[in-house]
Amino acid sequence: MQSKRTYGRALVLGLGRSGAAASALLLDERSAVTAVDAADAAALRERAAPLRARGAEVRLGARDLPPLTAAGRPAFDVCVVSPGVPLDSAWLKAVRSAGIAILPELELGMRRTRCRVLAVTGTNGKSTMVKLCREALEAAGLRAEAAGNYGTPLCETAPRSGGLDWVVAEVSTFQMETAQSFAPHAAVLLNIRPDHLDRHASLAAYAALKLRMFADMPAGRPAVAPVALREEARARNPGLRWLTFGAEADADFRYAPQAVHFREAGRARALSLAATCFANDILGLTAAAAVAAMAACGADRAAVARAASVFEPLPHRLAEVCRARDVRFVDDSKGTNLAALEAALAAVPGRIRLIAGGLLKETDLDGVKTALAARVRQVYLIGAAAEKLETAWNDTVPCRRCGDLPTAVRAAWADAEEGDAIVLSPGCASFDQFTGYGQRGEMFAALAREVCAGAGDKREERLRDDSQNGPEKRPEEP
Predict the structure, then answer these.
(1) What does pTM read for this prediction?
(2) Which stretches of 214-259 are DSSP H helices?
(3) How does pLDDT run along the chain (478 residues), one tens digit per residue?
């Protein structure tokens, strides 16, 4: 059971889905809510309407905050922050100067959650891990929901959490920036790779925020980390019950080809992942982490294999869209950092024609060059980072600046040979040309299907001509 301290007056910064959920929860508790957002868009106005109807003051398109002090005292008891508001923003600086307590939406929801919480963080693979853990818990006969950075905001899930056994919460560094006392019942760190360095000062600062998730957990609670990070993670909270996963021989939960190996009640066990999407070196580690998470939750480890056997991958994560002329189109638009791009290159079989680019979130562009040289025939560059990526990579793999996604898809298709995979794994954020990675992936899928349909039409014309003119006439290549 989490803290139920209530607040007389609450300031909510940001009215995205998280901010709206926090505002609604606070209104349920009879707080006087003032919600502020610098933007003013149709989606925000739609969220604001029911809050205003319930008595909240909502300020959209705001340039300034409402008065933060009254009679020399803070005007609000708490400021709840949405993930989109950076720690160094002028608004948060003003809130801190006024002596108002700051709380991330995730932690407010955590304090109101009436069941156990399994928290998951990491650079890549968090959403897939959260989905797999939720489905594994359900396969083990437990009631579970996904929340946090994936699924619904925790403030939205908390009011109904009394009917659950577990909430599986995806945790981001943005949410940990303002955390005060975040203490899940079990926690998993998947990996740490460079990401969001456009917001965080350095890789060390980013890593510290990932590890911050463990800092306030009471001694004895279970925590899961990769073998390679166990000492760094354990240093944040030595009193936790640490479990490790990885491909290394000394991992408590070890991925080996198509299986996760571990010991239970003193006996060696192996869970087969054959014929599942986790039977590879990338997602296999996610499955190993999920088995460790089930152990941390006291749930049936074998439930992971049952969940994996029917698992449907999330959109825009290594999803094959279509194929034609034995050329596959793979949508990995969620690959928004270079570590995810490198993982995609390892996971997709065959030779790759890579579409990459957008808004860079990191500066080290050389780390992926070995993978590019080994797997990629050509890179087709789009977006704001195209010139930088071409300069960095052109000595390793042929690069072509295409500017936009339609041009890149057409160019890759024109160059493609049998057995190639045309992969959208941008390694960058999407906001230079799209509203988000989802819109980018949907455009790629639409363009791919259009190309594949056209290839099918040409094939039908070719076969029709062949039938009419006899076998002696050699059909043109589609």
Answers:
(1) 0.88
(2) 230-236
(3) 445 789 999 999 999 999 999 999 999 999 999 999 999 999 999 999 999 999 999 999 999 999 999 999 999 999 999 998 988 899 999 999 999 999 999 999 999 999 999 999 999 999 999 999 999 999 999 999 999 988 799 999 999 999 999 999 999 999 999 999 999 999 999 999 877 767 777 889 989 999 999 999 999 999 999 999 999 999 999 999 999 999 999 999 999 999 999 999 999 999 999 999 999 998 999 999 999 999 999 999 999 999 999 999 899 999 999 999 999 999 999 999 999 999 999 999 899 999 999 999 888 999 999 999 999 999 999 999 999 999 999 999 999 999 999 999 999 999 999 999 999 999 999 999 999 999 999 999 999 999 999 986 543 333 334 334 433 322 222 2
Residues in the chain: 478
Residue 336 burial (CB < 10 Å; 0-12/13-18/19+)? Answer: buried
Measuring CA to CA, which residue among 128, 119, 80 is closest to residue 211? 119
**Which amino acid makes up residue 315?**
P
Domains and CATH numbers, the chain: 9-100 (3.40.50.720), 106-309 (3.40.1190.10), 319-460 (3.90.190.20)
